[in-house]
Write a structure and sequence with these properties.
The protein is 8% helix and 49% strand. With 212 residues, the protein is mainly beta. Mean pLDDT is 82; it is low at 4-28 and 198-209.
Amino acid sequence: MRRSNEHSGFGLRPLAAAVLPFFLAANARAERFTIDRAHTSVAFEVHVFGAEAEHGRFGRVTGTVSLRPRRNQGSVDISIDARSLRMNHAALGPLIRGGRFLDVQRYSMISYKASQVVFVGGEPARIDGLLTLRGFTKAVPLNVTEYRCATREDHDDCVMSATATLNRSEFGMTGYGAVVSNQTRLTIRAEGVSVEPSRHEANVNRKNAGKN
């Protein structure tokens, strides 16, 4: 019940996705999760002068995930505060947040929304969603590279990492083409906490109700 390939990402090497928690096992854990902001990140990676990799990470990510593998249904709704970007080289931060790239003063939020999740063996394998960035909305499928869940006494929690490759020019970021690569790797690494009782808690509640 575990898939683990790599932890990298949109340079994002941790969201990966984000990247989202995108969890749920075939034996029917909770189906709806809210993202734990303290343990979720979205990251990206670009190359400078054709060689050196530069990484950025968004620290403020919120959202929900729903996974129903037995029905082959799922949805993802993630919001990213573009102003929370941090680069591995701090000097690049103002450039990437500026008007030639993310333009965070005009477009402070980035979103990823999906209403279709592809399952393989009861686990999410691909998320087909729409990325909205700088006022442009494009289809960007995410490939799930890690997925694992655990049942706690009062809730379920799951971790998922997913990655995608996109061209920044498709989202209006055409500046510095001779210096910064057009191709960008995006990674969402997300941890989610169930918004419904875990199986353990549900069983305890049923037993207690039977005693009354």
